[in-house]
Structures are given as C-alpha cells and as structure tokens.
C-alpha cells in the first residue's frame, strides 16, 4: 500500500472512527513527537554552529516559528475532528428539540462518539415522527368517533321522538274506540315495531264491527219476528 494511501486511511480513522480519547492520545503523541524533533534539530544546529552565535539564534527562531505553526495546525485539526462534530450535533439536537423533525442529522457515517450521538438523535427523531403520526391518526379516529356518536345520537333522538309520537297516536285512537266509535282505524303506517300492532288493531276493530253488525241484524230479525207473532196473535183474538 502506498504511503499516501496509508496516510489518507490514518487521517480518515482519526477523524471518523477513533473515539475522543483516542483522538486526544494521537494529538498528544504528535505534540510530543514535534517537541522531540525540535529538540533534535536544535541539538544538531548547536553542534554544527557551535562557534556562530548568530546562526544559533536564527536556528532557535526558526525552530520556534516551526513549533508555533505546527501547533496551530494541530490545534486546527483537533478542533475539526473533535469540537466541530459535537457542535454540529448540538445544534441539530436543539433544532429537533424545538420541533424541526425534518432536518438532516450530521455525522451519521462516523463510527466515533459523534457518530453514535448522531445515530441516537436520528432514532429519537424517527420515534418522535412516528409518535406524531400516531397522534394524528388517533386524533382523526377520535374526530370520526365523535362524528359517528353525534350521528347516532341524532338518530336515537329522532327514533325516540317518533316512538313518542306513535305511542301518543295509539293512545288517542284507543280513547276514540273506548268512547264507542268502532269506525276508527289507523290509516297511516307506523314505525317498524308498531306496524304489526296497527294491523292487528285494525283487524280487531273490523272483527268487532262485523260482530256487532251481525248482532244488530240478528236483533232486528228477532224484533221483526216478535212483531209478526204479535200481529198474528192479535188477528187470532179477533
């Protein structure tokens, strides 16, 4: 494997895979290595320019500038691989907590602590989205149940009112019959359960009316017969 490939893999591991403590260890190791290299370079320059004080001063200044530049570079790299991911995840967490559930979660492809936090935040966001969907479904079902209950309540009230009216009509009709009017019948159809009663009542009134008519006919016949017998008896007496 070529050196540049190894270097790229190493940097990718430090940035996206290594845990925070491993990153800190690597950074401290680099700082120690830089300090050792600087010390070795200073010793070499002091040995080479032992009689040249001016060159020694220049070498010390160059080493100091090199150390400052390398320290700044390492600090920038440390901020990028340690601080930036946590700052991005913190900002995303605040947005999710504020109700923004459609944002893009950063660092999901990382295998380090930042990646674990990002995937946990994504799971929380998905669970929140599912809960919102369930709440919307529950609210919709509750509204539908309320609508059906209202509709059933209206139908029940309508049926109760119709039953009350039907019973009132039956009571009024029976009062008419009780007064002796056997010509009365219920002409309009009743509600389902009362329709059979209407037919039976009308049939019964018809039977009573027919029976009374027959009794009236029989009484008339008897009266006529009695009258004829009386007439015949009177004729015999004369």
Characterise the protein shown here:
The chain has helices at 3-16, 20-48, 53-97, 113-178, 192-237. By secondary structure, the protein is mainly alpha-helical. α2 runs antiparallel to α3 and α3 packs parallel to α4.
Structural class: mainly alpha
Low-confidence stretches: none
Largest beta-sheet details: none
Overall mean pLDDT stands at: 76
Order of helices and strands: HHHHH
Q: Secondary-structure map with pairings?
A:
Layout: H1 3-16, H2 20-48, H3 53-97, H4 113-178, H5 192-237
Features of the shown structure:
238 residues, mainly alpha, 5 helices, rod-shaped
Q: What does this entry show, briefly?
A:
The protein has helices at 3-16, 20-48, 53-97, 113-178, 192-237. By secondary structure, the protein is an all-alpha fold.
